[in-house]
Amino acid sequence: MAVTTLSATDLKDRLTQGADLFLLDVREPQEYHYAKIDGSTLIPLQQIPQRIGELDPARDIVVICHHGMRSMQAANYLANQGFASIASLTGGIDAWSLHCDSSVPRY
Question: Is residue 100 flagged as an active site residue?
């Protein structure tokens, strides 16, 4: 399965339209507690293989990190494990803060 990318504004539009998306944040706990998208779930990148059972392979999953590198790694891993609908947030939480929700701190 190919991994798609999603811009912050596209993600915001989909959430506003009520899309049923699972927001998977793969940053470290201290990053997540400092700045996050409401409704996202934290599973740090290194824990994905051990915690893959917590994820639904049939669900639309958007993977989030700081700038988009770790999320793409996680998205590719999940796609290789048979997850059907995986997207990586381009620009990560930083792009979300810049383009969608300025109340989310940048770091």
Answer: no
> How does pLDDT run across 44-90, given as a tens digit for each residue?
999 999 999 999 999 999 999 999 999 999 999 999 999 999 999 99
Q: What is the DSSP letter of 47?
A: G
Contact indicator for 53, 83 with CB cutoff of 8 Å: no
3, 23, 65, 74: the catalytic one is 65
CATH placement of domain 4-99: 3.40.250.10
Q: Tell the residue number behind the tokens 């796609």, with chain if given.
A: 79
How does pLDDT run across 25-46, given as a tens digit for each residue? 999 999 999 999 999 999 999 9
For 18-56, b/e burial (b = at least 16 CB within 10 A) is: eeebbbbbbbbeebbeebbbeebebbbbeebeeeeeebe
96 close to 8: Cβ distance less than 8 angstroms: yes
